[in-house]
Amino acid sequence: MKLYSANMAPNPRRSRMALAEKGISGVEMIDIDLAGGENLKPEFRERNSLAKVPVLELDDGTCIAETAAIYRYLEEIQPEPNLMGRDAKEKALTEMWDRRIDNALLMPIGHCFQHTTGFFKDRMTPVAAWGEEAGKLAAAFLPILEQQLQKHEFVAGDHFSVADITALCSLEFGKVIQLRITEDFPAIQRWHAQMKARPSYTA
Amino acid sequence: MKLYSANMAPNPRRSRMALAEKGISGVEMIDIDLAGGENLKPEFRERNSLAKVPVLELDDGTCIAETAAIYRYLEEIQPEPNLMGRDAKEKALTEMWDRRIDNALLMPIGHCFQHTTGFFKDRMTPVAAWGEEAGKLAAAFLPILEQQLQKHEFVAGDHFSVADITALCSLEFGKVIQLRITEDFPAIQRWHAQMKARPSYTA
């Protein structure tokens, strides 16, 4: 397998961390130069028509885009250690939290970054006022995450899961919009320290 | 089980269609008045802190929010008919297409609607210029979907899946922003006619 990745971007990091947590090695890493627009070229669009990283390319040439789909594939080919829940309810709640963080934290952080900085203005139309709003939306999710982590050791409950990976990569990417895990969020701080201690942290 | 739903909204419809495709009956439907802000009240926020529909409430009181998580729960409790793929690759590609449609079609349609009309301006800050951009992003996804449906009978490949449900609910919701399946998209038109013929269409 090959993983088309990019060093600073949060979604490729989610995939690399999932590989590390699963203990899957031997995946060839191919770094895509997003700032230079390598992902916009026809060769890359053949792998993902939406021109985004990560993409997991299987040995038969099948290309799997979207981090959630890569999570799913890895969970299927190597069920242990389990990262997506063990029974119907646990699976659903893991999916719920992973999706919540993706939609209500990571996506607004990305929009805030792109729309306020104009980082990708060669390929999109930044709307600064929307970027500002998106930043507020991301910040508004922190109290919800804090409440969850006050009740549970991990994001989706009492087991480590892909939702922890997504939350970690989202929150650390949040630095680009000055989103900080302040002392107002002691449970997130406690959880963050636990995440940093995992070997997958540097993946 | 109970489903907290809303008649005109696309995500509750996705859940109702999945229930219908699975042949799961006896779920109590509770209509939430989104325009009137019933979803913003404390009673509802106890079920979903993000104040969104749909929510599937299990008999033990567990509340599952996020349509993708409801899909997952239904697939787990009633695997047939299969809606999310049969092997690792099929499951991953189904997830990929479902997620693509959610992020690159349904979400921009929703943003365009909310930001250009100000429909929810009592609870958010509409940014009209972003709404316009989001509308363009949604329209830009149609050629990608057309290309996929020229090669495959269904959205995720050769099997009906949740990705078809998500695509149908997204495209039909697109009417609110004047997104039309014109003759430029014959494969989408062919597929749309097939979807309308399924009993789940009116769920």
UniProtKB/TrEMBL annotation, chains A, B:
Per the record, the domain of life is Bacteria
**Species whose genome carries this gene:** Thalassolituus pacificus
UniProt cross-references to Gene3D superfamilies, sorted A to Z: 1.20.1050.10, Glutaredoxin (3.40.30.10)
Q: Which CDD domains match?
A: GST_N_GTT2_like
Q: Which InterPro entries match?
A: Glutathione-S-Trfase_C-like (IPR010987), Glutathione-S-Trfase_C_sf (IPR036282), Glutathione_S-Trfase (IPR040079), Glutathione_S-Trfase_N (IPR004045), GST_C (IPR004046), Gtt2-like_N (IPR034345), Thioredoxin-like_sf (IPR036249)
The GST C-terminal domain, residue ranges = 87-203
Q: Name one Pfam family in it.
A: GST_N
Protein name in UniProt: Glutathione S-transferase family protein
Q: Where is the GST N-terminal domain?
A: 1-82
Q: Which family does it belong to?
A: Belongs to the GST superfamily.
